[in-house]
Amino acid sequence: MSIFKRSNRKPDTSNETTRPKNSSSPENRYQNEINKSLVGKTVVIKGNVLLEEEARIDGNIQGHLVSKSLVIVGKNGVVNADIQAKEIIIEGTVNGNVNGSYKVEVIPDGVLNGNIVSQRVVLHEGAVFKGNIDMTSKLEKALEKEYKGNN
Fold this sequence. Notes:
This protein is mainly β. It has helices spanning 26-33, 138-150, and strands spanning 36-39, 44-51, 54-57, 60-67, 70-73, 78-90, 93-95, 98-106, 111-113, 116-118, 121-123, 128-130, 133-134.
């Protein structure tokens, strides 16, 4: 009989605590950035921009911007265009109309020269806004259109 007998049993690790993955690890950061677009400070885009993912604009866009997700106009961003997106956050300058199907938010020092159409609008103290706000829901608009059509 041998003192050093080899066992085929695996060690019991049920009492070991599992350490959660670090959310700031490069792999996790990469996964979080996959569906985001970035327009850098030195980038100028002229024309129509169509996006399906989130976008952060720190450069200059002239034309029309449409996204199915979130659009953030960064502090250095200048957008001379109409924006249509699910959610729009303005930290920089937008000269054009914005249509946010979920929400439009202008943070302090953000500038919006144009009309807002959204069910939710947040204008922070210190934000600059010149335009009109339409907060009627799609249902209200459809009923209003139907009512006007019947009269």
